[in-house]
Design brief:
The chain is mostly helical and 61 residues long. It has a domain at 21-57. 38% of the residues lie in helices and 0% in strands.
Length: 61
C-alpha cells in the first residue's frame, strides 16, 4: 500500500457588521481597516490565510 502525504487545513470566514454602510460612508477607510484586522489575524497563524476574496488586500494601511 502506497503512503499518502496529507496536510491539515483550516478555513476562517469572517463577516463585517455594517459593511455596506461602512463602504458607503468611507470606502478607502473601510478597506484600510479590514486590511489592518487581516494583518493581525495573519500574524497569529503559521501560514497566511488564503481569502476567498482579495478585497482585504486591495488597500494597505
Amino acid at each position: 500500500m502506497e503512503r499518502q502525504d496529507r496536510r491539515l487545513a483550516a478555513i476562517l470566514a469572517a463577516d463585517v457588521e455594517g459593511y455596506s454602510r461602512l463602504m458607503g460612508a468611507d470606502e478607502a477607510g473601510t478597506l484600510r481597516c479590514i486590511a489592518a484586522y487581516r494583518a493581525v489575524i495573519d500574524g497569529h497563524v503559521a501560514a497566511p490565510i488564503r481569502a476567498a476574496s482579495s478585497v482585504a488586500r486591495e488597500t494597505a494601511c
